[in-house]
Queue: 4 jobs
Job 1
Amino acid sequence: MVLLVGYVLILAASVGTYAIHGNVAVLWVPTEYLAIVGLMTGGFVAANPMKIVKATFKALPGVLKGAPYNKALYVDLLAMLFELLSKVRKEGLMSIENDIENPESSPIFSKYPAFLADHHAVEFLTDYLRMMVGGNLNAFELENLMDVELETHHHEAAAPAHAVTKIADALPAFGIVVAVMGVVNVMSSVGEPPAVLGKMIGGALVGTFLGILLSYGFVAPVANQLEQKCEASGKIYQCMKAVLLASMSGYAPQVAVEFGRKVLASDDRPNFRELEEEIKNRKGK
């Protein structure tokens, strides 16, 4: 929604202010629009493997939605981790084997549908809990493995943002290409009346206008949104990593979730009292 508000402001500031003293109709040159869109699409497809092309189109609708990683989700996550680790502390690691193998039917995981809906996060948590149950890895080895996996995840998640950024950078040049083609057309029509030539030159310049406006006003903001959402999506994994490593180091569940809470950004992080009260309330249910 914020992206759409920004688009409206950009159009109002550019086309809207131009309309005060100019004729908006002259900006409508369909062939220039078609050429820019074609160059943008072709450049994007040519520059990226199909895997990234598909990932980008899959990620684009997300820029219009609110971030799923918010304070409520992290409270659920920390409360769930506390519940899992408390069960481990009381009954041993083997007691959560069924929860790990079938999280959808687990009495613990099923209490937290928002987390359960995130397939990748559930897979990350259950994979490392499974390793802990195996009992063959120490905290140092597990941390190194987590770091490698998180680096790979970040690289894959950031690919759509990088691809869209490259297209935003190329659009002004595409605009120049379209404008030059228009100028070539003008030069081949030098015998036409000045009014006709002026219209043709104006149409050619629309290409430059479109390239710059689309780049900085429309495509670059999408790339920034994708990048920010990528960064936000990584926090849930860092939070789980901190809690699991603290637990493996021998800390009590209440202290282990504090490690995870401290990892979170300030606007998504519940304070100590909020988390403590939430955990107490859920224990009573």
Job 2
Amino acid sequence: MNTLTKMTIAATASFLAMAAGAWAGEVVWWTPNFNEARARELVGKFQAANPDITVKLEITTTDGLPQRILTALQSGAAPDVIDVQHGWVNGYAQNELVLSLDEVVTQREDYIPAALEYNTWDGKLWGAPYRIETHAIIINKADFKAAGLDPDNPPTTWEAFAEAAKKLTANGKSGFAITGGGEVGNTIFRSMPFMWMVGGGIISDDGKQVLVNSPETIKAVTYYTDFFKNGISPSSTLENDGTANRRLFIAETVSMYQSGQFDIQSIRKENPKIDIGVIPIPHPEGGKTAAILGGWSLVVPSAAKNPEEAKKLVAFLAESENQAVLTDTFPARVSAMEAERFQDPILKVFKDMLPYGRPVPAHPSWVQISQAYFDGIQRILLGDEDVQEAMDGAAAEIEGLL
């Protein structure tokens, strides 16, 4: 072997060592913007305890996030840890896009069972749930009183709720804001529970049957979209996501909207004079309410550059004390819910809604299925199609995905 060849081999080995060193010990974590401050606090704590690991935070936004994550996972150019909604995990697992976290999530008896179910497939756990939530209806108590309604004896049925929303729509205010734009999950979370209350859905729980154009679902979608059709939801509904509705509520141009407890702090901070109330989501006469049990989990992509370091970070974030910090709704661990910040009386109705929470169907194409439904909702709100026509179109798309 000549000297030049030896030098080339040595240089190549040195380059590879440098490249490995550049990656070793670095964990790239994609976390949504609403988590940024809490994530940075926990990263500081983690790095102090693990000086050999550097965590690089990359902040995401929810608009377009499902597709961005899916593209990253499929391309092999994914980060090491990603915050994802529970409902996405099963599809990633079935498509071999994430690593099992069986050995990472311990003390499972301390977890809300449904949160673990969301992340389980083929007998293994593929995500680490840290946040759970259900929606309720956030109301302006002063508006109720001005409209002759009793905020302490709120409407509970669909008919009574719609009538109250109509009474609240006065003097430039909208009675009840629905979502029609932004990230798809906003509209899924707000409309799908109405389907469940009457026996409908987008697809069956086993993922084998399309339900989105069934008579039951048509009834629920009609109820939901009629708030806009009848002028009760704001004219900007087609563009509005949950954040936009919160801002309208803070501006006191909306009297009621559906959301989670994560909005309470922002309302109190930005308009402390609003007397906030929280009421359960209304149900059909003689029926029961329902909600999506939502929330977020942490996953480690199959293409993670440093999976072991990533799993170490996930295990740290899964600790009860840290989980109580990271979530801005309820933690997935029962013991974490004992933290003082979860004892605020205004959270009672959100807690009361938890037993009515259900997971979305586990299907590898759920992201695309929910997009097809959302596109149908937009066609209804635009006035391009009636409810039956729009849901028939969604059904045709979804059938192909099943």
Job 3
Amino acid sequence: MISHIEIYVSDIVKTRKFYDILLPRLGYVIYQEWPEGFSYRDRNSYIVFVQTKNKYIKNGYNRCNIGLNHIAYKCGSKEEIDNLREFLKKENVRLLYDNKYPFAGGPEHYALYFEDPDRIKVEIVFYENI
């Protein structure tokens, strides 16, 4: 079981604004806060976001390089995913594979894919039996 995941970000203010909207909708609650970061937790684990030092920002993030490709969150229902998709569209969040929504991951995989402020791919998925 994962204890926590830590992600360095280019702009902690933008990231905080984004995840303050997303994560509570998925059942996460704020866990820790400090000037350079914050975290959200669920019952079993937590996710941490930390401001990257300026000297490292120039490299940027690319999910096709070595490292994190994406992070996926479980959602309670297909309707929640549909509602989140509509909300993200109104907020002009970049949706990925939207032409194949909701089955971009395959015919049995109901999911929404989009990017966070650093272009990290986020997946919200519904599983019937998990």
Job 4
Amino acid sequence: MNARLLVRAAGPGVTVQDPGRFGHSRFGVTPAGPMDKAAFLAATRAVDAAAAIEVSLGGATFEAGGATLMVALAGGAFDIRLDGEKLPVACVTPLPPGSRLSVRAGASGAWCYLAVGARFELARALGSFATHARSGIGPKPLAAGDALPLSHIADPPCEVRALHAPALARDDAPIRVMLGPQDDYFSPEAIAAFLSAEWRVGARSDRMAYALEGPRLAHSRGHDIVSDGAAMGAVQIPGSGAPFVLMADRQPTGGYPKIACVIGADLGRLAQLRPGERLRFRAVSWEEAVAARRALETATAAEADLPPLAAGLSSEALLATNLVSGVVSARD
């Protein structure tokens, strides 16, 4: 079976991503990987996929070739349509040959993930499918006319099903950060300004970093440090005083002081902000950051164990479903 996923249209920034290319930063190789890990996991775990296609605000359109495919989508509140019919923003759907699946920017969010119940037959670079466009490592960004070969095709569902995706819930709460590791390069007044200001995501934001617009933060000990490792979510303050947050395609090391780092549990919320949208920061303790990360991991793992939720529940569907996992006796 010559199955493949056909790309009929693609805006900028449509790439293949897996969890990332780790273990090579000491050689100057960026991990890449998804901008919103929770959304990526929601899509890939729903169809048991190792990789997904990350779609940016420019959107994309796909078609199945050679076989009906099972695909899952999750991410921002994108406008997802199958042959013009609107689908849930997080769902599993069959994609028959000849049908068009369009993924377009919707009410909110900056990234959407499309996973296929199959194996991408693509060359791995340093053991990973993750695309890092700036360095040319991994598959090239997708464009109209591309065809991704597939194998190990899973049986597609009979109908569209909405996904349980509690980890995808978004809110307007402040983005939580841990101060440091170079917060001692800033005065208490500068740190207070960083935490109290309303920031705006700048137009120059991309997969490498989100530029923030707001007050200028002055350094008290200069704006150069000995280059050290750069984690996703690190908030660097260059000489201009304008912060930027390092993202999935960040450089492996950096020489600007880092006033704070976004905690892992909030990286997806930050990544899903569009240019022009506003945010605030709140400093938290190590214990709160760890608890938030554990809660997110627990919710994401639970999603993988839950069957997809039917898009339209009926009495017949509920009566036909085993809603009891077992029974106990009061005599035991």
